[in-house]
Amino acid sequence: MKIYLAKADTIADYSDMAYAKLTNYRKKKTDKLHVELARLTSITAGLLLNYATKDYLNAGSDEDFGIDSSSVAAADFEATNALKASAGLGAIFQANTAFLESSITEISSDELFDAYDPAYDFEIEELGQGKPVFKERTDLYFNISHTANIVVVVMARKPIGIDIDGNRNFSDRMIDKFYSKKEAQWVYGNELRKSDRFFNIWTMKEAFSKMRGDGIARTILNVEFLHDTDQVECIFNGEKQDVLIEEQEYYGYKIAVIREA
Q: What GO molecular-function term can you cite, just one (predicted)?
């Protein structure tokens, strides 16, 4: 698994040239948008997916960058999280038997433009609830998310979802409506970290729904993420899910990634 990030507003000076490089699939999506930042975000998403696909496939490994926590002592796990926390980085969360640790690769607009290679513009189709997948590369999975001017893409060898969100207002009503009782208790349990905890769970819910391809409306009330122990448990329709979870942070924005184990 690998996460790629780019800022949409940095391609503003040559957005027309960048648009010309897009696939017809991405052009159609972009053409529906009339707000300038939304158009730049869509263009950036197309170029970033091309970059990520090329980079990931040329990395020379079919394995995800991850650690099997069944072989990692609890003390080591806690030490790793403490080290990341002291550095201002996102925590790694165990989910059942494993957890992921990856870095974010930030790509400049010049790199996106210069590295573009049409050979990696694989045809995309959308499944029932609109989840985009590569039509012929069934061995390769991707997911895209964006907020403000930031676009993120994740690549993996198994179904995966990603979400980025934060640095915005939210209401207690959202917690009471969309979070389970245990989730709400955890969010309300630390007033100083209430926003962090809210977006921690919110992005996980979004990423889980995108991994499944069900759509957030079909999953948000049926999935919960429990933080009662060092492990984060993902429960869907009352059953514990065998998934891998990672959380990263980028200038106050939470990034959650969830992948099939």
A: magnesium ion binding
